[in-house]
Please model this.
Amino acid sequence: METIKKNDFIELVFTGKTKDGNIFDTNVSSEAKKIDLKIEEKPFVICVGQKMVVEGLDDSLEGKEIAKEYQIELPPKKAFGEREREKVRLIPLNIFTEKKIMPKPGMVLHLDYHLVRIASVSGGRVLVDFNNPLAGKDVIYEFTIIKKIDEDKEKIDAIIDYFLRKKLDYKLEGKKAIFEIDKSLEPVINMLNDKFKEILGIELIIKDKIKNKNNSSQ
Model:
C-alpha cells in the first residue's frame, strides 16, 4: 500500500475536537452542521510538510495510507500553543466603541488580525485575551486522506487558493506557470515563486494583464 511522503499533495477530510468531544473545525458537511458551521463544498487539498494545517496534524500525515481513517491526539505544543500570560492585555473601551463594538465577557471577535476573547469589562477598560481560544488544550483530529494529487494544475490551484483565497488565470507550459495579472498582484506572486520552485520545480512567470490588453487592441 502506498504511503504519503513530505511534499505530496493530498485531498484531506478532517474533524478537530477538544477532548470533551466539542468540534472546533471540520471540512466534513455532516460534522459542520452539528456546530452550525458553513463550509465550502470543495476538496481540501494541501501539500504535506508545508504547514498548511496545524503542525501536529501535518507531521502525522507522513507515512499514512490513502482511504484509511485515523485519529490522533495532540498536546498544546503541537496544536494551538501554550497559554501565555503576556497575551492577556487591558485595552481602553473606546477602542471598541469607536468601531461600534460593545464588548461583553466571553465574546469572541477579530481584533488586529487576531481571534480574541473578551475576559472582562470594567471601569472603561477591557481585559482581552489574545491567546488562541484553544491554546493550552489537548485536541483530537480524526482524518482520512482521500487521494493523492498528481496533476500539476491541481497542485498550483491548491497553493494559490491556500495563500491567496482567490482563483487566478494562468497557462501551464512545461515547468512554467504563466500568469496574466494586474500589476498590484505581482509582489504576492513573486513571494510564492520560491515555494513553487521548492515543492513543484515550477517557475512563475508574470505578464501584465493591462499591458497585454492594450497591445492586443492596437
Summary: Residues 1-80+136-150 form a domain with the Chitinase A; domain 3 fold (CATH 3.10.50.40). Helices lie at 29-34, 55-61, 93-97, 152-164, 186-200, 209-217. Residues 213-218 have pLDDT under 50 and may be disordered.
